[in-house]
Amino acid sequence: MIAFEKWHGAGNDFVIVDDRGETGGLGRLDLGGFARQVCDRHFGVGADGLLIAVAGEGVAVAMRMFNPDGSEAEMCGNGLRCFARWLWGRGEIGLGFTRIGTGAGLLGVTVADGGAVSVDMGYPILHWSDIPVRTDFQGTSGWVTLRLPGWDASTLEATAVSMGNPHAVVFVQDVSKVPLEEIGPLLEVHQVFPRRANIEFCEVVSKTKLRVRVWERGAGVTLACGTGACAVMVAARLHGLVSETAVLELPGGNLEATWAGSASDTAHPVHLTGPTEKTFTGEWSLLLPRR
Q1: Does domain 2-121+276-283 have CATH number 3.90.1580.10?
Q2: Extended strands (E) in the chain
């Protein structure tokens, strides 16, 4: 049996498993298959992702993240916040600042009393070849033109940003009217994105408030997305739409993002803050997929 805990941050939910030392034992498993089983909301635990604690390089612990479709993601902002809170609850880290390894490198997290966790998400990646975006689709003034045959609004303009994983941010007048379930899967696999992409639709409410809906790569519609919130914040700042700190309203709750950068000065880290909560603990005893 495999012990796990279920956590969420603004409704973005994760199953966390320890694969270190005597508590480990996932080495012979097909981790992608395990993620598909565990994240299934009908026949598994149900989650937006599987987080696995592994030994870190240069740090005590690192986090691997798998999507519900079994693909491995570089990192996940809300997942990292939940992961840090999980470590704190186990007495492995204290309140305050620490670093955790991820597929996107070492990232700093700060755990506060009351469950809030802040993450230094690092610098946004804006060079299209590094996001990556195919060069033949690159537009002007930071926009990428996305054409969707068969959809009513057949052409969209998106801002491409990487927060260690690729994102495309589309600004709209009313985010509630976006048929996300219809166009999200089309945009995720659009040929402009060689590694697929997370898709965010954003409505600018004010200089300090953004309303966001998310289609996550490998997961579909989710209630929140940490890296997505950061990508939206960066895109909004690049186009002069918000102040340095803004609240992002997502279906699962609010997150706060801060970025001091601008179109002329992008070398600033993005910070993300929000709540975390443990839902329950359990043991997985069903048949496990082997390599």
Answers
A1: no
A2: 2-9, 12-18, 49-55, 61-66, 72-73, 96-102, 105-111, 117-120, 143-147, 155-162, 166-171, 198-206, 209-216, 220-222, 245-250, 253-258, 271-274, 277-284
